[in-house]
């Protein structure tokens, strides 16, 4: 009997030539605590581009060839025997970044605790863009930095994927927000809630901003070192970019 297959976007090896492309892969099977999702949209993040390089091999357990993609939205088509929060027909969104499987496929298996109901006011594309940036922003600002109402947080690159969500989250948490962006996006990040906006094409942010409690490090290069100049004594930097 032939195995049931589906289309997925995979990579076959790690390194500079990962052999990316669409392939026929085995149709996924469910464990008791998982849901099967027909994928409607997938959100891609910089980290998805880094996985085939092998940089995450020590922490991510992929069996090659492996399906790429982390964030997704779609409709539940089947549920495992222990699933209680979802039923077939539910619209969900999820991130499966660290689970050794990918979202760039016709169907995806998602642990029940990695999914949430799709907000009714978001379409599937909008919902798929949220999981990783929202989880990252929450972990950085709330869990790591302990952002409190009334504090000032500097979020560089306010019009980027992390920046656009982090600004809104920081405002929701009651903080005052400073950010940087290009000339064409100044109005946009102000609309998102930023209180102080520096157009990096015209000014150096370290010469304009001061007295910040927290810096969210989102840019490589010398940006972290420059960011120390906007911190008040005892301020904190939470970096998302490693070394």
TrEMBL record:
Pfam families: ADH_N (PF08240), ADH_zinc_N (PF00107)
Domain Enoyl reductase (ER), residue spans: 15-242
Domain of life: Bacteria
Molecular function terms from GO: oxidoreductase activity
PANTHER family: ALCOHOL DEHYDROGENASE RELATED (PTHR11695), RETICULON-4-INTERACTING PROTEIN 1, MITOCHONDRIAL (PTHR11695:SF294)
Protein name: Zinc-type alcohol dehydrogenase-like protein SA1988
